[in-house]
Amino acid sequence: MEENLIVCQGLSKHFGLKRALDQVDLTIGRGRIVGLLGPNGSGKTTWIKVLCGLLQPTKGTVTIDGHQPDTHTKAMISYLPDRMYFADWMAAGDLLDYFADFYPDFDRQKAESMCMSLGIHKKDRIKTMSKGTKEKLQLAVVMSRKAQLYLLDEPIAGVDPAARDYILNTILTNYNPQGTVIISTHLISDVEKVLDEVVFLKNGQIVCHDTVDHLRETQGKSVDALFRDVFRMTPNETAQGGTEVWDD
Amino acid sequence: MDWTFENDRPIWLQLYEQLTLRIVTGQYPMGGKMPTVRELAAEAGVNPNTMQRALAYLEDQGLATSNRTAGRLVTDDRDKIQAVRMELARTCMDAYLQGMKVLGFTEAEARVLLTEGESEWKKI
Q1: Which helix (H) or strand (E) holds A6?
Q2: Contact between B47 and A169 using a beta-carbon 8 Å cutoff
Q3: Chain B contact set for A32 (CB, 8 A)
Q4: Domain span at A236
């Protein structure tokens, strides 16, 4: 077992001229809950997709537990995508069957009890669920795997505050102490006290990687307040910062 | 007692303060068993590593001891708890006097007002 769970070196991903990830060097250990924070379009989802093996890096390397993304790493990663990918016709119970078939580390009992707490019944069809309920269901199945690495892309954005607390508590009580949880979000104040460390992404580059308590100690403010400072936008800057010109 | 956090200070330090308060007020009785890191972390809604750091500091300060078989125990040193209680009391007094100073009272006036206010005490 490698000491560091995730190691990225010079990791870049370009989409045409756009550098979604630009020379990312990052090491993340085990047993950590990490917040991946950045404004829209800063590269959060791209980075997660590269870790999952859904996207190939343009340059640089990434290893998870010493392996490049492959079938080995896919088995140890539980991934919550930023959008729903389940078939509409399924009922919640079907989805649980599906996960139980797919993943040997899936704990069906846990998933059922989470669904019950979240008010989702076995026979409820995904098609008839609200957006928030779908997200809750998706998170319940993803957190019911005993994975080494949980990659949660915006897990709490679409759900109500009470369910948010429940979900964060689920993450805190269910993650594997040898594993790591990565949560991408911009709802920083909600997740701040749950996190060990944070990674700030800006235009595909890492601008800050530190523990929450060290940041609070040295900056004298919450991570939420720091985020607002780092990513403050003034109308002027945004106009200059853009690379594309509208008129073209 | 609910867990509350201010924004401008490290979370572990605030956890430590609130754990201390629970020991001083007897919510965790002297010599008694404390909940586990995981239980406390879930209750406060914080990261277990952060809670662990607060508990380690609590042990450093002599308010709790780790025992391999019995888990984590509140200290049975009555004097130690009393000393911490007095320290916290002093902090409260300082805050009161500081507040009164800002309002333009002299220390003597502040003390008199405090004595007069005693009837209010019973209502709290």
Answers
A1: strand A4-15
A2: no
A3: 49
A4: 10-241
**A212 domain-assigned:** yes
Higher model confidence: residue A236 or residue A70? A70
- Provide mean pLDDT across the span A189-196: 90
Among A41-55, A218-232, B17-31, B83-97, name the one with the lowest average pLDDT: A218-232
Q: Identify the CA nearest to B51 among candidates B23, B16, B3.
A: B16
Query: For residues B44-53, b (16+ Cβ closer than 10 Å) or e, as one string?
Result: bebbbbbbbb
- A1 in any annotated domain: no
CB contact under 8 A, B50 and A212: yes
**pLDDT at B55 (0 to 100):** 95
Inter-chain CB proximity B50 and A225 less than 8 Å? no
Domain boundaries, chain B: 11-76, 79-121
CATH code at A105? 3.40.50.300
Helix B37-44, helix A161-174: angle, nearest 10: 170
What pLDDT does B96 receive? 92
- Domain membership of residue A208 (yes or no) is yes
Does the domain formed by B11-76 have CATH 1.10.10.10? Answer: yes
